[in-house]
Amino acid sequence: MQKLLKRFTSFTVIIGSGLALAGCGQAADASPQQTATIMEPVDISSLDSTMITDIGAQETVNNAQEGLYRMKDSTTVEPGLATTLVKPTNDQTVYTFKLRRNLKWSNGDPLTAKDFVFAWQRAVTPKTKAANAYQFLPIKNAKAIEAGKMAATKLGVTAVNATTLKVQLTQPTPYFKYLVASVPFLPLNEKVVTKYGQAYGTSAKKTVYDGPFTVQNWTAASSSWTLKKNPNYWDHKNVKLTTVKFQVAKSPQTALALYQSKKLDNITLSGQQAAQEKSQPGYLSYPSGETDYLAYNFAHKAMRNRNIRRAISLAIDRKTLTANVLKNGAKVPYGMAPEDIAKNPQTGKDFALDSTVKSAVAYDPQLAKKYWAKGMRQLGLKKLNLTLVCYDVDTFKNTAEYVQANTEKYLKGLSLKVNVQPKVQAITTMQKKQGYDLGFSNWITSYPELTEFFQLLNTDNYNNAGNYSNAKFDQAYTRANGVDADNAQKRYADFKQANQIAMRDQAVAVLNQGQVTRLNSPQLKGVTYAAAQGITLKTAYKTSK
């Protein structure tokens, strides 16, 4: 349940697309005070990199911590604590990372390869109950350890010496470079974690840092907290900002007012604001790595009828949905995976465009009526009552109600009831595959990897909300993560085939791909965004203009 819950609850906060703001390469002005104030839409839960799941907390942690790699943009990694990007050996299953020399934690302790071993073993230990433990499964013995069948010390990660970390995988994993750039794979200071035990990461004082900044004045009750430049960070000379204040602003209207009065330098826009502020300097919109879709519950006979599924999809006007209902920058989708996740290794074309099946996301009410009539004849029905479950978030409710209005308008005999449930209840309902016929679902990737989206349709996968099953799809998906895992072009072709199979089969009704819209002060330069990590401030600086 943990992985699914994380995805369903993360959509309100930011997942960047590697977009860098103008002026990144310029020198910082000496005159302006090098401080910035950043909006956070919600309170954050923890600073313990092993335990956090909310994107807001990851945003703070990614500015205060650093792992082997860091995200340069949405699909590119660069060295962090590692000296260089590693080419795996032994049939692409062994990574040997060399750490920079003389690394230090913010308390002055040396940072060594053992800090990664400790952190990763802690994450896979069952009693830790780490929500993101599943991300370690590519590492040798992780599966057995997480199942309680093997000691965590058997995890395939070894500190060869203070500056050499060796990692052994069970099979080639092309996206491993993204994993080691993510929060769960950050190092931990064993001495400090042991000192505070379960209290580690519950406040700024009970946490130690190795990144560009340190966190000050944060507890779980805080509505604001401060980042201070970390003098022990290996690259501190290139960090320009001395102070960053994060301010929780749960009301978009309040955040905009604070931005307009120059009390916030960077805010997230929502709904109508995105359209109203589009012409303002500092406005930017970028893919969030999110797909919203309707999952058909294949336990229901009518949902197993492809003509019924086609009719429902064709009755939904996605252009109107994104432009006039959501109004938050969301875009009409191309398929299961959104843009900026992967590109064709040979041509460089974005996967979403390269693999699209236009009929799967088309709007054609007349054709919808024909498929509906055919499907109803096949089922021997004149009326069909269906229930659409979603949870109590405005964007979800508004989308569900729009789907209800469109489908009932064009599909004769359909009665679609929208059942709005509390978030956890709705997720549980869909996980059990009972009590609903259609479920409004969304998925936000943790890292730019196609498996993240296509595992949602793999037979018997825990996150397969509708229990969809197609042998040809499964074969393509399995090849991509098996025999073709170390061949980039073949793997890409496998996922392309999987997407086209699923979209032609109308496995789900993809509704929109998410966008993040922001306003950033023209004086705050060098800000970057990366997938699942929000705003990154290592290269940011203030100017007078």
From TrEMBL:
It comes from Levilactobacillus suantsaii. This is Peptide ABC transporter substrate-binding protein. One of its GO terms (biological process) is peptide transport. Residues 1-22 form the signal peptide. Belongs to the bacterial solute-binding protein 5 family. Transmembrane segments: none annotated. PANTHER family: PERIPLASMIC BINDING COMPONENT OF ABC TRANSPORTER (PTHR30290), PERIPLASMIC OLIGOPEPTIDE-BINDING PROTEIN-RELATED (PTHR30290:SF10). Keywords: Peptide transport, Protein transport, Signal, Transport. Residues 76-462 form the Solute-binding protein family domain. It is found in: Cell envelope. It holds the Pfam family SBP_bac_5. InterPro entries: Peptide/Ni-bd, SBP_5, SBP_5_dom. GO terms for molecular function: peptide transmembrane transporter activity. One of its GO terms (cellular component) is ATP-binding cassette (ABC) transporter complex.
